[in-house]
Amino acid sequence: MTVSWASPAQASNPRVIVRGTVVHAVQRTYTDGINGQTVFTYHARLKGLEPDTVVEYTVTADNDHARAHPFSSSFRTAPRGRASFRFTSYGDLSTPVTTWVLSSPQSRFAVDAVERFAPLFHLLNGDLCYANLNFAAQPEVWADFGRNVERSAAKRPWMPCPGNHEIEFGNGPQGYASYLTRYALPDNETAFSGLWYRFQVGSVLFISLCADDVIYQDSGAFNAGPEPLVPAPVTGNPPIPPGTSIYNHGYSGGAQTRWLEATLAAAAADAGIDWIVVQMHQDSLSSSKFGNGSDKGIREVWLPLFDRYGVDLVLCGHDHDYERSWPVRGCNRHVGRDATSGAPVDTCQPQPVITADPPGGRFDTRLGTIHLILGGGGTSAPLDAYGINPQNGRPQAKVITKPNRPVPGASPGTFTKAGADAVEDAIWSARRDTQTGYGIAVFDVDPGTADGQTSIKIGYYHALGADRSPTSRYELFDSLVLAKDRRRENQA
Ligand SMILES: [Fe+2]
Ligand SMILES: [Fe+2]
User: Fold this and answer.
1) Using one digit for the tens of pLDDT, what is the confidence trace for 336-361?
2) Ligand 2 center–CA 96 separation, angstroms
3) CA neighbours within 13 Å on the CB side: how many for 200?
């Protein structure tokens, strides 16, 4: 377990104390390329912990203002071997400080919701705080985000993946310097460590991906104009002209997809892995009406791997709503249409293997992968409207099939980006929450018995009414069970 924190000034002898043992923290810093502020972060890696045990710890430094009563908390380590455990997920959290773009008081209740369900860990699937929409104040937004999540993240791991709003002007070649400085994540042994990783709990393999690498849509840092963005003189950085965006498509040169395939192939050969859960930020199966929609880039590059190696669940955010797909495998070619001309377009429409609830409500994800959109963390822009095909009344999805780089806007010096360029019938869409965009998904893993079935019970709880006024009440909206025969140790 790594204990990480950020500090407004440099810490002297930063450390974590566990049962009288001092663990020194490693310092990582970056200087924000727009306002010139230096951020100090500290990471103390605790080794040799016992499984399934509560560990109390204290964080301090020689120049800690609170040295008399330093910050203390505790966490529980993961159980060893096949065991029951709970995890939770959502993305698109923001901060409770409403001066920041896309922040909302609901993000406070969203953190409380994680504590209510008390998971072993929480998967935070991208768009953490939207610092990149607040150019001159990126480090301050991150600080408000940290203050909000601390009361949960100090007690259980919050395992993130990067979203488009983690891509910041001035901060590294792909704009991830702030994210990468703040999180100490499992190594992926590539030049892009921290952006994607894997970890295993019980018989569940969790794979966290950075979809910015494969999506077509251009949704990172963007100066829409008409003024250039002028960094503080102390940074020495030149102005960023209107129309500039950071477009990370293909940034890893295929390294991430090669790593993913190798990771999935190893999992297929490992009889100790019953389930594969993937988190990423952007969506390959979303029929949101006003959100981004589905991205063909993920469908082309990663869905075939999910099919080949039997990924069970894909958890995303990005569109600020809740949508669940039927289990999908393979895709139908050339059934989409151009959003403007109506001409045929190949959207790689995912193919559902069933389109009704299975007997007993138990889904067998060996037949197909279920995708969940969980973008209702806590932003001020929740969504609850979905596409309908005007011809047949069936669910319809927007699909992004090509790059939408900035183009000149209506007034001089301004720039804009086109929305999705294609549509398709969302034959894969099983459930859409039209009441509120806000919610949290809760997953209970049951390892089952040696010759029996293992299962994951999924409950999605939504915050009814939160779109009008923030609320702490999260009620069950959708539930399902994934079940399959447990793998035997001698079965590859
Ligand atoms: Fe978002
Ligand atoms: Fe996003």
Assistant:
1) 999 999 999 999 999 999 999 998 88
2) 18
3) 17
- pLDDT value for 488: 85
* Distance in Å, CA 227 to ligand 2 centroid: 24
Per-residue pLDDT tens digits for 164-212: 999 999 999 999 999 999 999 999 999 999 999 999 999 999 999 999 9
Residue 190 neighbours by CB distance under 10 Å? 15
Taking Cα atoms as reference points, which of 145, 152, 149 lies closest to residue 115?
A: 152
- Centre of ligand 2 from the C-alpha of residue 120, in Å: 25
Query: Cα 341 to chain center, whole Å?
Result: 34
**Residue 239, φ and ψ in degrees, nearest 5:** -60, 150
Is the distance from CB of 74 to CB of 55 less than 8 angstroms?
A: yes
Residues 18-27 have a mean pLDDT of 97
Ligand 1 centre from 14 Cα, in Å? 34
Q: Which residues of 402-429 are buried (b: 16+ CB within 10 A; e: fewer)?
A: eebebeebeeeebbebbebbbbbbbbbb
Q: How far is the CA of 163 from the centre of ligand 2 (A)?
A: 5
CA dist 370 and 342 (Å) reads 29
pTM: 0.98
Mean pLDDT of 433-453: 96
Under a CB-based contact definition with an 8 Å cutoff, are residues 107 and 440 in contact?
A: no
> DSSP 3-state assignment of 29?
strand
Handedness of CA 296, 297, 303, 306 (dihedral sign): negative
Residues in Cβ contact with 218 at an 8 Å cutoff, skipping those fewer than 6 apart: 245, 247, 249, 403, 404, 405, 406, 417
Residues, the chain:
492
